[in-house]
Amino acid sequence: VVDFDESVPDYVALGRLEGRAAMVIGAGRGIGRHAAHALHAAGAQIAVVDRDAALAQALATEVEGIAITADVTREAGVRHALDAAGAALGQLNAVVDIVGGIPAFGSVLELSEADWATAYELNFRHATIVTRIAGKLLADSGGGSIVFIGSISGLGGAPGRAPYGSFKAALHSLVRTAGFELAPLNVRVNAVAPGLTATPRVVARLPDSAEIGKPGGFPQARDIGAAAYFLCTDLSRMITGHVLVVDAAQTMRHPVGVGGGVVTISSR
Ligand SMILES: NC(=O)c1ccc[n+]([C@@H]2O[C@H](COP(=O)([O-])OP(=O)(O)OC[C@H]3O[C@@H](n4cnc5c(N)ncnc54)[C@H](O)[C@@H]3O)[C@@H](O)[C@H]2O)c1
């Protein structure tokens, strides 16, 4: 019964990040941009990292942060980003790495070795580097939070995009293991697993009837950014090694039902 405490905390204050610094990797657009805005709105200083220098600079201006150009699929890029953020901000308390994507679609009979290698680079390699290097840095400074963006494609099968789903599944497993291993060092490691989300890159592929921003429809980048922000705050201090699905119930759809074989739930 050591540390038992029934007092009521200031819950709103637990969501604030004044005096803290956060790095958002792949922040230039889409989900990363919204994660950076959420963290900034809560009071954190922001290091915006993107391999696209113009995108990084534009967002850094929006969130009054610093821009760092780096490719995080290489260890040198991650080290450069962490060194630059440390030098400019003096500390780092959270790292949100949103890098990922689908470089090739196709059947498992068609996808080439190069397609698999590219998907590994884009979706998993950087996460192993960030976990190792940022994890050590946060542990050495007393603790912190690391958040990756997984995918519902990594929860089950991912027809037509097997490499993407496979490496997102690997990312989820890494998060669970790292969450467990780094817990004694006060470093939390989590992932947000979005469903198909109406980001600028994806919205053109959605049907005209798509209900965006409604339960039963499609999340927006802001909804994934909000979850990433939550995982960086003390509101989530007991959440680690977790994959938080944010999919507006897309994965709850039953394969046998009305409406073209898919039962959808409307908020209305
Ligand atoms: N949009 C969706 O429907 C959806 C669904 C599930 C999961 N996700 C995941 O969410 C994440 C973000 O998706 P998005 O659509 O916002 O991405 P996006 O492609 O729109 O943006 C990615 C950003 O990361 C930067 N970037 C890419 N590679 C980089 C590298 N090696 N180093 C540094 N910066 C790099 C890009 O320049 C870009 O600014 C990805 O991990 C994606 O797999 C997206």
- N-C termini distance: 47 Å
Radius of gyration computed on alpha carbons? 19 Å
**What share of residues is helical?**
25-40%
Largest sheet: 7 strands, parallel
Structural class: alpha/beta
Unreliable segments (pLDDT under 50, ≥5 consecutive)? 260-268
Give helix and strand order, one letter per element, not per position.
Answer: HEHEHEHEHEHEHE
**Number of β-strand runs:** 7
Tell me, what's the shape? globular
Hetero groups: nicotinamide-adenine-dinucleotide
Number of helices: 7
Range of strand content:
5-15%
Average residue pLDDT: 94
Biggest sheet, spatial arrangement of strands: 3-2-1-4-5-6-7
Structure description:
By secondary structure, the protein is of the alpha/beta class. It contains 7 helices and 7 strands, in the order H-E-H-E-H-E-H-E-H-E-H-E-H-E. The chain has a 7-stranded parallel sheet with strand order 3-2-1-4-5-6-7, with helices on both faces. The relative contact order is 0.13. Nicotinamide-adenine-dinucleotide binds next to helix 2.
